[in-house]
Amino acid sequence: MEKIKVQDAVGAVLIHDMTEIIPGVVKGPRFRKGHIIRKEDIPVLLGMGKEHIYVWDQTPGLIHENEAAERLARSVRGPGLNLDEPKEGKINLTAAFDGLLYASEDGILALNTLEDVVLATIHNYQPVKKGDKIAGTRVVPLMIDEKVILEAERIAQTFPNPILEVRPLKTFKVGIVTTGSEVFHGRIKDKFGPVLRRKIENWGSIALEQTFASDDVSMIQSAIRDQLKHGAEMILVSGGMSVDPDDVTPTAIKEMGAQLITYGAPVLPGAMFLLAYLEDVPIMGLPGCVMYSKTTVFDLVAPRILTGEHLTRLDIVKLGHGGLCLECPTCTYPRCSFGK
Predict the structure, then answer these.
(1) Quick one: DSSP state of residue 153?
(2) Please, which residues bridge with residue 165 across strands?
(3) Range with the largest mean pLDDT of 27-41, 64-78, 180-194
(4) pTM for this structure?
(5) CATH code (residue 36)
(6) Number of H helices, E strands in the chain
(7) Residue 327 domain-assigned (yes or no)
């Protein structure tokens, strides 16, 4: 780039946007990058307080910040993301549809270790809505050595999955089995069902008819099998998840031959959470907090399963960092620290 006097700029090509600010009237680009300066532009530029401007000098090996930011954005973009137009050297990536953000934390770190490269994102596994801002890219200098951007593009290609992508939640048929002799015999009213049904439907899935079982291993297993017969692709078993002698839900699930991923999670509320797979069908044992706490471990795990992800014990263990809900008087999840 080259710095020249405004009076000598006729015919030169602007290298960046020129912002005009008139309080209460306008604040935005008066001249865009690539604009060829005309004679009539000179008094306008002087009126904007510009004595000198930077123009394109076509130095080999250097690229403009807008091009660099766009190439960075394209290198990290996976499915489910749109790119905004470059603005003052920055490109925003937004969600193309509702879903869950999958971000490679290692990939983000690797790119940001490159000098003069900036990639800022929201937290991994965060639920997003269409149009939500997901990330922004830019470079620090107005002009940057293209070798830096080529290295960023190379790094992005070394990861098996895109550094950033939004995965839609699939539509599952979800079976609900509520355990507990007190509910089964009608001594108390079930409160799990309405909560679970509302969450399932908000995620775009279908809640099958809820079934009930007393605190009996064989009855719980029979209820789970009935849900499978009715086409359940995910099963939620509520109640009976503590260590009391009468709480036999974990035993019932394990003794069905299900692959136990975890019984217990480093999340509060939700420590007594169970995840298992019976062949390909995920089964979640839900503790009592799901019934009365607005956001729990269930809200962190279920959406990931609904994207089609097969979770491991390590995935659950990692929830400990950020797994403490502060139980604010007004819940703002997911725009808070929980699950981050």
Answers:
(1) H
(2) 102
(3) 64-78
(4) 0.84
(5) 3.90.105.10
(6) 11, 20
(7) no
